[in-house]
What does this fold into?
Amino acid sequence: MRGILSGSGYLPHYRLDRSQITAFLGTGGGKGKRAVASFDEDTTTMGFEAARRCLRASVTVPDSVLFATVTPAYADRTNATTIHAALRLPTSVAAIDMNGSVRSTSGGLRLALKSTAATLVVGSDARGGLPTSGDEASGGDGAAAVLIGSDTDGTLLAEHLASATCTDEFVDRWRSPGDARSKLWEERFGEVKYLECGQRAWAEALAATGLATGDVTTVAISGLHGRATKALAGRLKLQATLPDRAEAIGNSGAAQPIMLLVDALEQATPGDVIALIVLSDGADVFLFRATEVVASWKNERTVAAQASSGHDLPYGKFLSWRGGITVEPPRRPEPARASSSAADRNEAWKFGFVANRDTANGEISLPPSRMSESGGSGGLEPVPMADVLGTIATFTIDRLAYSPSPPIAFGIVDFDGGGRFPIELTDVRPEDVKIGGRVEMTFRRLASSDGIHNYFWKARPVAASGDTPTAGAN
It folds into this structure.
């Protein structure tokens, strides 16, 4: 039996109040807030954060990683390999990009459910548009991941009942490569086409299971065409539509289908039938039934908890992070291009944040030491540190070093169980940094030069809600 073994969502720390757009430019904006990726985040780093939370809750190692996004950090190379490296997965695990449209995510789900091997499906997106546009205000940044497998791979949270699809060629949204914004056709045209496909796929999915609409406990409808998603709920006479949290976080595009699916699972009770409808270049419908496991399942950080948190970001800062305006940078040289060969030699440290322990004295070295106290490298053992919490021993605020968003907060972090390392802090205001503050590690983009992204780890304050990762070296 195929189904969902684990799932998790990731929402960045920052929120943009849509009313700030109106106040700043005199038009655009709206009510509520949208999630905003930090200047050092992209779809790859957000996808990794969702993926590692998903895998923490499962002992199953996936056979492959399918990474879907509309806004990849790289073209002409695989972005999923970076997620693969940061997760420290075996080289035998395939890492594959599925880029281009929101339907890439539902396509990944469909392939994973038809496979016979455990598959990690990750959706990530950073939505935007021209200033004052509807896409800018209604979009949202985030990522989500689900681990799909069989009951032989582990205990299922939800069993897959049926899927159905409807594919149709019509142009209602498009963006040429290199363009900063998507263009839209007249809304009524897209609404008609999506309603036709949505109803057809819904009927086929129900027919495959013998269920009626009233038997479905929760329906999550994902899509960038707001009128179509609302109209389809009415046309199908759905009574239990899951809120899309658009007013709190916005529409996260390629991440939204899995984000809503995880959100539904986090609220499910055993026996609930959950439907996911994805409207993108047609329609896809997935039906699941929650198992007894969901009664005791608690995600590390629920979608609901993340949606209700976050720190407000000024609209001017949002524009500077997205390249909408250019601010005066620190008068220091920009970072040099990262070395591919050096990164390859230090992959475990750079991407996996793996230190080592000297077996002679038990000391943990960050970065990894090349020689033990007893001499040679034979007395060293690897110690993964990415999930280990730490405490700020001291810090400094640097207003001179180059950064896309100065100033930079640097901290000396003492890790639980041993090890000390100087590291950049993120997702925190300079005035909020304090000695004794607790931090967790997060995978970020340090800088980009000559089109090469330099990924490494930073430290961020532990979530105030207390739903934090387990401390200790693994």
About this structure: The two ends are 31 Å apart (CA to CA). Confidence is low (pLDDT under 50) at residues 464-474.
